[in-house]
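S1.2 Input.
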Amino acid sequence: MAYLNKIMLMGNLGKDAEVRMTQNNKKRVSFSLATTRRFRNPTTGETQDDTQWHNIVAWDRLAERIEKLGIRKGTPLFVEGRVSYRQWNDPQTGQKHNVTEILMDNFEFLAPRSGYNADSGERPVFDTASEFGAGNLPPPPSNDPDDQMPF
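S1.3 Output.
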């Protein structure tokens, strides 16, 4: 029997990517990614957002690429990876912590589709932006990235 652990997410970075070196001299980059599902409340008819936060981790060469690109809070991103669950104990309190992370295998910058008007109040629809090479970040969805953030 074959097994599969694969996840694909499209969302916005919730904070700047954080770079660390492990004790074994391996580069690790982590950031949060917000994904939002918009739906209409069946009782009130109001539009509501359900935002989920994902902890993304990249290692080694992929971590180096992300560090060089300097991705920042608000950057729209497509992430492919696998789900990882781990536990650790706080050495000071002895409390057990559970962590769910997405171990990133690949990523692409996203850009709003042409014709998107940030002033219209509509949410942008993103296309993968392969024309954005290393060092060239896509423009934010509006003049003020915080206006389009789901948080």
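S1.4 Remarks. The CA atoms of residues 20 and 27 lie 6 Å apart.
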